[in-house]
């Protein structure tokens, strides 16, 4: 266990920087070092397993007690799991002897730098892949769904299966779907066009945040029997994000019309959908164009 803990990050060093995920590269270097130093094969193999599995919680303990205990200790060092278990004076002495130097962040930066030079060192479904994704623009990091889409088996996400409600697969498609579902008084369909943590603008006060609040506002919009026409004004698409604006013409049942400019932010999801992250027809907050009377 001592050797596992002492050598477990050799894969982040230059000598351990091969073409495999850093845990396995480091395990290979550690085992070769121990065998060269005269260790028995069985002991060197135990160290290899502990290092190769040190980011695999739930798996390491099944291989050996040493690997399991080392994995928990390493998780304490990085993620603070069971942080209060070691005596305070032991932690203080250790930090005095070996300052952390922002280990949690510096360590991730080193792994990401290695993978930038050798992309095959990371898969989107393992720890190195996750660390790499943290530094990539939104929507650019490969995901599990990207792997499935490229598998050649033809598996489809839920929104592409026969009979499933249509989903916006480009930022512009949301506008058409929003208007169709509003006219159909389809509250669930409208809500599906928003991220669970989305925000929707209100004429006064803070935005409606989250599905529960947005559902209430959409329900009020449907009940008001307001008709809406949307004309695209501008659009800017980035990496997984889109900023759009429309001219919205609101017409109340009594014929009263209000026109204003809207602002929307859409975000690409891992399965290819583009729901609203933010939708705000009141972004400018111009009192003369308030929609309050339309929703009363």
TrEMBL record:
<protein>
    <submittedName>
        <fullName>Nuclear transport factor 2 family protein</fullName>
    </submittedName>
</protein>
<dbReference type="InterPro" id="IPR032710">
    <property type="entry name" value="NTF2-like_dom_sf"/>
</dbReference>
<dbReference type="InterPro" id="IPR037401">
    <property type="entry name" value="SnoaL-like"/>
</dbReference>
<dbReference type="Pfam" id="PF12680">
    <property type="entry name" value="SnoaL_2"/>
</dbReference>
<feature type="domain" description="SnoaL-like">
    <location>
        <begin position="178"/>
        <end position="274"/>
    </location>
</feature>
